[in-house]
Amino acid sequence: MKKYFIFLQLFGNTSVDVSYPEFWAASFDALDKGAYYLQSLVSRDYENLVANKGDKVNVMIAPSFSASDWTPGDSLTPTDTTQTAVAVELDGSKRVTFNLTGKETSLSAYDLVTEWGKPAAEAILAAVDTYIYNKMIASPYLVYAVSGLTESSIIDARTALSNRKIGPNRAIVGAPDDFGTLMKLAAFSQANITTRTDVILDGMITDRYGFKFYEDNAISKYTPADLVGAVNHGAGYVSGDTTMVVDGFNDDANPIRKGDVFTVAGSSAKYTVQSTTTTTSDTTGITFLPALDATIADDAAITFVATRSMLAFTQNAFAFASRPYDMNIPGVATSVVNYRGIPIRISVFHDGKLGKTVQMDILFGGVIVDNRRIQKVVTA
User: Fold this and answer.
1) Are 59 and 149 within 8 A, CB to CB?
2) 42 lies in which domain range?
3) Which residues contact 331 (CB under 8 A, 6 or more apart)?
4) Residue 63, preceding bond cis, omega within 30 degrees?
5) HSE-CB of 188 using CA atoms within 13 angstroms
6) Which of 260, 281, 306 corresponds to the end of one domain?
7) Least confident piece of the model among 84-93, 161-170, 341-350
8) Whose CA is closest to 300, among 308, 292, 289?
9) Statement to judge: residues 22 and 118 lie in one domain
10) Of 214, 221, 259, 208, whose CA–CA distance to 41 is shortest?
11) How far apart are CA 44 and CA 47, in angstroms?
């Protein structure tokens, strides 16, 4: 019945139908189903806990144990446990709002959905996936493939997860450009090597090396405005430090951000930014993981590279929750469309000029549950 109702809307009297949020719900039916995947692949188990009230829920992380020697009859000494948790907080809020004049509302339903509704719906989904991606790239576990993405990069990501006992049901989500690179590799494209014809026939990458592959248009390369700075601490820093005072960065136009990867002279490791501090909008402090593996001298060069990451992970690596805003608003027609489980509120109201205003919005939040469950494949 719902599909039939939407069908009638699309080919009925649009000057009436556009007043109903259900008309604009058809915008999500018009989307390319494969464009944005991240929100469907992470854990959504906690949404019911913030469905109607509250804006935060704690996600418990299982403690680690090790077995010790014991002879039956010996006295028992229990191991103290420390339960850790992370909080999923609904701190993300996105909206798309547009006005339609009386002339525009008289256009065909097809034009209204494809020219206004579909781009608005896509913007909401892109914002959610970008939010999740920007959170997940804070994981410090990475395969550095800046010099070239190869099948070995994917195997290395699998091996790293396996060594940390992470799996099964692993996924890899990457940008279209990185998928294009993989499709050119023999291990993905040559049927005489793999017996698989998915890339050649369908332009898709199906299961490989223990991963399911998903292409996501929200992932893009990020370039800080200034890629090279230096340590700014007379005594330098020692192995084990995770913060540095820095200078030489003029990056206010496009700042260094959480998840960016850098190297520092004197160390062979690759480090991931966890947070930054700024002075007059330029980066002057960096907190990072993993901890320094060597002593670093004052004025040692710090070098960033413009990168994006393919994310190799399991569902329980990241917890995501969302809910619609209040729907009881006088004078506003509201409804909720669930797209892949995401509840998006659609509102329609008069703009005060004999036209109509349409808004799509969502409240959401997410957090990495355990960095070890994410392995980045960093590409340039």
Assistant:
1) no
2) 14-62+87-136+318-366
3) 349, 350
4) no
5) 26
6) 306
7) 84-93
8) 292
9) yes
10) 214
11) 6
298 and 322 belong to one structural domain: no
The answer to whether residues 375 and 312 touch, using CB atoms and an 8 Å cutoff, is yes
Question: What pLDDT is recorded for position 52?
Answer: 59
Residue 97 token pair: 């709002």
Residue labelled with tokens 């729907």: 327
Smallest CA-to-CA distance from 295 within 227, 235, 249, 229 is with 235
In a domain, 78, yes or no: no
Last residue of a domain, one of 273, 306, 339: 306
Count of domains observed in the chain: 3
Nearest to 365 by CA among 25, 32, 46, 41: 46
Rounded Cα distance between 327 and 336, Å, is: 9
Question: Is 123 found in the same domain as 52?
Answer: yes
Same domain, 97 and 201: no
Contact 88, 365 (CB under 8 A): yes
The 10s digit of each residue's pLDDT in 154-196 is: 999 999 999 999 988 899 999 999 999 999 999 888 877 778 8
Q: Is residue 119 part of a domain?
A: yes
d(C-alpha 316, C-alpha 167), whole Å:
10
Distance CA 49, CA 298 (A): 49
Rounded to whole angstroms, the Cα distance separating 380 from 265 reads 20
In a domain, residue 149? The reply is yes
21 within 8 A of 115, measured Cβ to Cβ? no
Residues 6+ apart with CB under 8 A from 369: 43, 59, 61, 86, 316, 317, 318, 319
Check residue 53 and give its pLDDT.
60
Domain assignment of residue 256, yes or no: yes
Instruction: Kindly report, residue by residue over 318-332, the tens digit of the pLDDT.
Output: 988 888 888 888 889
Specify whether 245 is located in the same domain as 293. Answer: yes
